[in-house]
Amino acid sequence: MLSCRFHFPPFCINSCGEKVPSLQVGCGQQVWSSTDSLIKPHKFCRSSKNKSGNVFKAMPGTAAHHESDTRGMKIYLVSDVHTDHVENLEWIRNLSPTEYKQHTLILAGDVSDNLETFEITMKLLKEKFNNVFFVPGNHDLWCRREEDDVSDSLSKLEKLIETCRSIGVLTNPSNINGVWIVPILSWYHESFDREKDIDGYNIPSVQKACKDFSACKWPSPLDTSNDSIARHIDGLNDATLNTLPDLQHADCQVITFSHFLPRFELCPEKRMLLYPKLPKMIGSDWLEARVRRFHGERGSDTACHLFGHTHFAWDSTLEGIRYIQAPLAYPKERARMQNGAQKELPICIYDSDRGGLLQDPFPSRWSEYYRRNKREPDNQKLAPWVEHHYHHQKHHQIHVDI
């Protein structure tokens, strides 16, 4: 089987058909609870401090988490750690036991489809970081192991949240030293994809190519053939997100995060993908609406949303919001430098001692490409590596494993 979206040569093709060398890397005192990069030092964008002095009360039924020392606070990001792979779990174990001890980690989904492995991973991370935030990905909701004892993916979601709560991992919006960190639950729907499909090739449907359709189990009336799952999962945010203060106009840094993509522009064009139908299983329009609720229709200099899922390192600003992905991904992808630079993970996205939010983009192969080249969704000419695949590897079974 072929993991179909990552096999790219060490160059990109720009809009003129030229080869472009690719990068080798791909306000408050209470909480509502439910690596420094190894490249050259970054500039940071100064975020606003909380001038109001307001103390937000903890939500009923949730624990208030207090932070007293605001000096040297850093927030790190990683996604798609997939610790079902031994090498990835070892990567977690090998993270410094002291370097991150006073800092915060945002983990943007896809830890493990096995509950025991999930718990082991989260306990390891909680030992290494002061705070760990998590939102589940699609792999986390797979129901293919009898030992997990779950009836469906919604029951699996409840078990994941309960496991996080027992360990001290945060899954609800929280205010850490004046920085609001807001997890957003989401799921994808096919209608999210509004760009022209690639014609003339035998490209299997998402139902045949994506394991989610067999590994996830959804109770009636939720149905994979429409947007009901994405709509339902989005609705699960209401209990926490709708009771938050007006963060869009708050004088503080707000960081939202999800597993799935809020915008299709955060994925390469179809002609660049070995599985051109990938955009049909990556994002949600309801998610983008949630993100805009917190950051505004025009965004701001400090608006930031973090995500995962596609295993493409990414850092770009669209309509005033900074979108960042920093995936660990699978061992074979790191070996080919397809996810970004492994040694730079987790990346530091916020440092209070250096003004706040990371300003300079960290090297990300595809977002760097789109900073140089205009997106051409109507262009049906396949990238050379995609064309080679469909012309010379017709007998390979396409399997999308993200």
UniProtKB/TrEMBL annotation:
It comes from the Eukaryota. Residues 73-151 form the Calcineurin-like phosphoesterase domain. InterPro entries: Calcineurin-like_PHP, Metallo-depent_PP-like, Pantetheine_PDE. One of its GO terms (molecular function) is hydrolase activity. CDD domains: MPP_superfamily. Gene3D superfamilies: 3.60.21.10. This is Calcineurin-like phosphoesterase domain-containing protein.
